[in-house]
Amino acid sequence: MSEFSSQEKSGLYKAIYTRRDVRSHFNSKPIPNDVLARILNAAHHAPSVGFSQPWNFVLIRNHSTKQKVKESFEQEKTRSSNQIDEPKKEKYLSLKLEGILESDVNVCITYDPTRFGPFVIGRSSIPETGIYSVCCAVQNLWLAARSEEIGVGWVSILSNDALKQVLGLPDHIVPVAYLCLGHVEEFAQKPDLETANWLPRLDLKDVIYFEKWGQTQSPSWDQIHELIQTNLDYAFIK
């Protein structure tokens, strides 16, 4: 395969740095079928443990189905708010955290631990790698959607039991991600929760250790240590 051109590399990094978890900017414009098919195909080409491809994609446009999922969201949001003290509880309840009804398509991405039988190369020591594989498919979908100017929002404030009932999922199938996809009025400059000062963005230098846990400097890593002191994001999104 040929190398990536500078333009192609810039496009990839732009998709990564400008990807957003969209909740409040969806509009009613439908996603063209060819665009949706490309996005799903990108998700299906994610890496997976033992090449097991353990995902399925449940596509949802029916308003009644969306409404049932929305009801689960409201119940779970209220329940989870009881874990937060004021004044942060009030702020949490005021946040827009989903676009279930506003988005054109909802997609539930699931994990099937039985696909290709009980033995999967690479999963015997770390069983969770099956679910990690599905998360790779989610990320592929998200980046492909961003390149197509389609917004994606991951709704994790949901009951998996409710999802299984609403979508008719078999007992052995695990819902991993419930995503809202649609055209948007804009992609925000920063993630919504960063803008709302819910949590700060950590600097790269604050999450890297060298050779072992807790070691923030090492002579053999001096050059990379210097590079990560600067914010590298913005060079790719201007």
Task: Note down, in words, how this protein is organized.
This protein has 238 residues and is of the alpha+beta class. The protein is built from eight helices and four strands; from the N terminus they run ααβααβαβαβαα. It has helices at 6-18, 33-44, 63-81, 88-94, 129-147, 160-167, 192-195, 222-227; strands spanning 55-60, 105-111, 150-154, 174-183. A four-stranded antiparallel β-sheet has the order 1-2-4-3, sandwiched between helices. α2 (33-44) packs antiparallel against α5 (129-147) and α3 runs antiparallel to α6 (160-167). It starts with 5 loop residues before the first helix and ends in an 11-residue tail after the last helix. 22% of the residues are buried.
Q: Strand count, sense and closure of the main sheet?
A: 4 strands, antiparallel
CATH superfamily of the largest domain: NADH Oxidase
Which percent range fits the helix content? 25-40%
Helices and strands, in order, run as HHEHHEHEHEHH
Average pLDDT confidence is 94
Would you report the number of β strands? 4
CATH classification class of the largest domain: Alpha Beta
Protein name: Cob(II)yrinic acid a,c-diamide reductase
Organism: Candidatus Nitrosotenuis cloacae
Keywords: Flavoprotein, FMN, NAD, NADP, Nucleotide-binding, Oxidoreductase
Pfam families: Nitroreductase (PF00881)
